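Bench notes, bay 3.
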Amino acid sequence: QVHVVESGGGLVQAGGSLGLSCEASGFTFSRYAMTWYRQAPGKERDMVASIASTSAGSSTNYADSVKGRFTISRDDAKNTVYLQMNSLKPEDTAVYYCNARRIAYGQDFWGKGTLVTVSS
């Protein structure tokens, strides 16, 4: 059974830092691209950061709005992907979702999200 579980959300002041984790099970984690998305109230879900599968070189990609502030990383031994968020802004407030995707197999798994609130 597949599980994707985010953790680490919470309340932080603007300018602060927060680290999110996403632990997965039930599939071969290293073969999946992992992506963090976020959805603010009343807005669409947007990509924040992605990291390719290990076999694809673990290349990373970031939304322009978070470049230089957020860092995505993965630990295949722990089946976990991380999102380190620094210099947080109130506009980073959102529910953050973790996604695992293996396009060639049409597989796409989502977590239930973790709320990040940045106060001004």
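Next record in the batch:
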Amino acid sequence: QVQLVESGGGLVQAGGSLRLSCAVSGRTFSNYVMAWFRQAPGKGREFVARITRSGGSTDYADSVKGRFTISRDNAKNTVYLQMNRLKPEDTAVYYCAARTTVTTTFGIWGQGTLVTVSS
């Protein structure tokens, strides 16, 4: 059973930075495509960023492109989300998610970590 545990959320002023981490346990981390999603208050969950198993390819939602960077350390079983130039509209619960390559659906989720950006 794969388990995902996010950390690094908190309160930050607009224009500031945070780095989220997601520690993965239970299976071979490098077998999983990893992603970050977020859910703002009163809204649905939305895709933020995705990284392939090797870390060689990434893609981002247009709303975060150029400000956020997803990365992974397969030796540490951890995926990161570096968030720079944060905006109040980035306020959300951020979730780490995983999937294998046999599916296109992210079916393994962490519990989420809250990011609040004040104006």
